[in-house]
Structures are given as structure tokens and as C-alpha cells.
Amino acid sequence: MTEQQENFCSLLREYRLGLFRLAKGILENDADTEDAVSETIYKAFANFDKLRSFESFKPWIMKILVNEAYTIAKKRKKTEPLDYIEIAANDSKAIETHELWDAVQALSDEFRAVTILFYYEDMSIKEISKILNLPKGTVNSRLNRSREKLRLILRVTEAK
Amino acid sequence: MDNIDDIIRAKAKSESLLLPQGFEDRNDILITRLAAHSKTPKRITLYYKSTAAAILIVLLLAGVSAAAYTLSGGGFFKQFFADKANNDAGKNYSHMNTEQLDNMASSTVGKVVNTDKISIDVMGVIISGNTAEIMLKVTANQLDTVLYDTGIAPLKNYRFNDDTSGSLFSNFEIVSTRYYYSDEDKSLAPNQFKILYTLIGTDNFKQDHYSIELIKFGYFTFGNGTGTVFKSLYDDCWQFKIAFDSQTDSSKSILINNEITAGRYSFILSKVNITPLACTISLKCNQTDEYINKNFNNICKDFENGTKDCSLTLKDGTILGSEQFETNSSGGAEGFTLILTFNVPVTVSDISSMNIFGVNYALD
After folding, report:
1. Sheet arrangement for strand B46-48
2. Rounded to whole angstroms, how far apart are CA atoms A85 and A77?
């Protein structure tokens, strides 16, 4: 394996948890999420030579993941009964409380990816706009709305 | 930065991520394998059987060259396999039996879709037990050519965005998809291509009609430096049905239920399904689900090492080794499956025994 390939593999391992989190935000159940991450890694290898520089690796791999996750989500909507999704959503074993994650999961579909990329992945509005193929204004407004929702949800939780 | 952003970010850093058991191990296997084959990326062969239907779609990158075919139905596949054997120099295919393909053929042949944009012809369908092969010919009526090399080797040229939808693809272990274009198959016009599906089902196919849905026609290209995106020329869905109504079925299923050892692990070899097209071997690891999930990486390694020398012996003493079939395996707590997809059709009743993990089992 060349040094470049080794770096590439290291980056994939470094970001796979972030990929899993983002995919889970879009797909909700673990099986689909893992499929999306695997497909993303496969495509990343297939397009390795097209990666301009390792500096742009994170937005590049996140963009692939978003495409894969939405493709799977579209297929799932077409083919799966609702009860499957409800059951599969609980695949992971919840041991600790995950206040923020629970709050993010409570957001509507269109807000989740923006929120995860901004708060968990520390990505800029510009980068999120490229990854999700949305105008910067849309990213901003979604982020504002999810920020207010999170503020509300987290305060409610704190008051309990 | 808004203070709430700081609070939320701090919370994001402090909360651990809930991962399914074994995710990182499975992911390590995937990365290691792809890195080993990064010049010619192929799908990994061993995958995790998740709680959802586990699906492995194999894009066949290296295939046989397709010759000109004017036949259809069973005759089409007789010629197809004869050419495949002829082009696969250096391998002995004297055991090949294409005569049985007429009895394995579906009655569905000819045009199944005829629109101003796309026409689809079923060239041939053969079915036996849990295996099937289907060849379609697609014509893009409004295009001069479907050749369009975007530089994405496995996904180049015009194609369907989703070619594995419909009831036919609802319950399978493996489906492989292979596209042929006019630069390889000289029988095709520039605006035509063929799709070959090889299906290994989880159970035997029933005598029924199965649907195929081909969704969106266009090509894959690179986004703004970020991965591949599908550019649709037509956002349509083309659906048709194929009758699985072959006259006879020579496949057989053998229950074994014997304990067998692969490296450090013990398995129960439960069942072997044999059809003229493939052999499906079902095993279960002799450990708890928790243990399997925790040690999945090591179990896979030993399982894969053990399957390298798997072979079948025919009644005349001919041994079918790894050069005579393509091997795919899958695994998880609910079971392991090893699939040997034969390069050419085999006479099921000629197979007398199987050697797996160094142990010989009679199959007749």
C-alpha cells in the first residue's frame, strides 16, 4: 500500500463515526445507516483518484455519504412498511442518556443533516451548503430554526 | 458565535455515539479489503448479515466478452455459456451441460417494454431452485449512442440509476449485475446495451411472476469534486414481469447438520443447495450471538481461510475447484452462507461430494 493509500484509509477510519452519525440522522435505523456508510466507503475507493487533496477529504466524503443516504431513504420509502422503521430505529443499545442526540432526532428530516454537520462536525455554512447542495441562505435559515428548536427542547429537558 | 451554539457544541462533544455491535470491526474489514484491491475496486465478498434483509450487490467488473446472439430463451443461454467456455482459455469445461437449459427457461421472451424513450427485450431467463440468470436488451430510442465514458470505470455509459428494484429483488443472498455495450458486444447497435442479472435467492424461487423495475435512465458523473451523482435523462420507471415457469427443476437440497471446524471456531454445516448454476452452503457458528458479534472479525478470517480450498467432486472423479466458480460469503449471528456460482452450468446429479474445511461430505 502506498503512503497516499495509507493516509486515505486513516482518514476513512477517523471520519467513519461522523459518517455513521450523519447517516443515522438521515436514515434513523442502524441497518440502513451501516449500508450507507459501507456504500460511501466503496465509492470513496472507486473515486480515490478524483480526490483533489486530503484537505478537502471531509466535505468530499460527507457529500458522498449524503448522496448514498438519500438514495437509500428514497428506496426505503418506496418499499418498507412503517412498522419496520419503528422497530429498526432501536437497534443500538442505549446505555447512556443522549440528551442532544435525542433532541436532534426530534427535529424534522430537513433540519437534521444541517444540524449534525454544523454542531457535531464543526462544518461551515459554506461547506454544508456544498455538501447538501442547498443555497447558503437555506442552510442558514434551517440552522436558525433548528437552533431555536434545540434551545427549546434542551431547556425543557433541563427543567425536568 | 451565539452562546447557544457553544452549549450545543459542547454537548455534542460530550455525548458518545451509539454504534451497533461490531460496526467498527466490519468497517475495518471493508477498508482493509478495498485497500488491497484499490486499483480495481470490487465489492467485498464477506458482509454482515444485519437485522434488515442483507443484500450484496456485485458489480462484475471483469467479465467474458459477449458474442453476437440472435437466439432467445434457453437457446440464448446455451450459446452464451458455450462462448464463455470458449473464451475462458486454459480451463477445462468438459463437465458443462447446456442441454438442460431449455428445460430451465422461462416462457417470457421478447419485448416487454416499448415506449418512445426506451424499449426492453428479454433475451433469456433460466431458473433452477434458488438461482436464476436473466439477460435484457435495452434500446434508447431517442439516442444515437449510449456510450458515454465519464471516467467512472464501473459505472460508465448510459444506464439505469436503479436496476435492482421490483419483487424479483426482494429476497436474495446475492444479485450481480453486468452491463454490456456495443464496444464489447458487437451484436448491439450503438444505442443499445444488455444487462445480465445473476440471482441467488435466500429460498427457492416459486412458480410465479416476478417484477423488475428499472428506475431513471441517465449516467453517473462526478459532482463538484465530491463523489458520483446520477444525471437523469429520463426520470421514468419501467416495470415489467417475468414468468418463473421453467418446465423442470433439477436442483436439490441436502440437510447435513454436522459439526465442522474452521480454524479456531466450530460451525454446524446445516444445508447444501445445489442447482446447475450455483451451490449454496449454509452454516451456523457454534457460539452465542453476543460472542459472534464481538469476535466477528476473527470468525470471518477463519471462515474465509477455510473456504479457500472448498471443492466439489463429480461422479467421474473430476474436481471442481476455485477456478470453476466464483465464491461469495456472508456471515452474522444468524448464520453464515458460502455461495459457489459456477462459471458454466453443471449437471446436479453428477455432483457426488463436497470438500469444505478439509472434510468430505457425500452429496448424492
Report:
1. B46-48, B325-331, B336-342, B278-285, B265-274, B252-262
2. 10
Cell (9 digits) for B216: 431513471
d(CA B270, CA B274): 14
Q: Burial code of A83-122, b = ≥16 C-beta within 10 A, e = fewer?
A: ebeeebeebbeeeeebebbebbeebeeebbbbbbbbbbbe
Class of domain A1-92: mainly alpha
Q: By CB neighbour count within 10 A (0-12 exposed, 13-18 middle, 19+ buried), where does B70 fall?
A: exposed
- The secondary element (H helix, E strand) that includes residue A12 is helix A3-27
User: According to CATH, where is 1.10.1740.10 located in chain A?
Assistant: 1-92
How far off is chain B from A86, nearest CA to CA, in Å? 12
Per residue in A80-99, pLDDT tens?
A: 433 333 333 333 333 346 78
Three-state DSSP state, B3: helix
pLDDT at position B37:
57
- Contact list in A for residue B223 (CB cut-off 8 A) is 63, 67
* pLDDT at res. A76: 67
Contact criterion met (CB < 8 Å) for B27 and A16: yes
| Domains of chain B, CATH where assigned | 56-244 (no CATH), 252-362 (2.60.40)
Within 8 A of A39 by CB-CB distance, chain B residues are none
pTM, to two decimals: 0.61
Question: Are A147 and B2 inside 8 Å of each other by CB?
Answer: yes
Rounded mean pLDDT of B83-96? Answer: 88
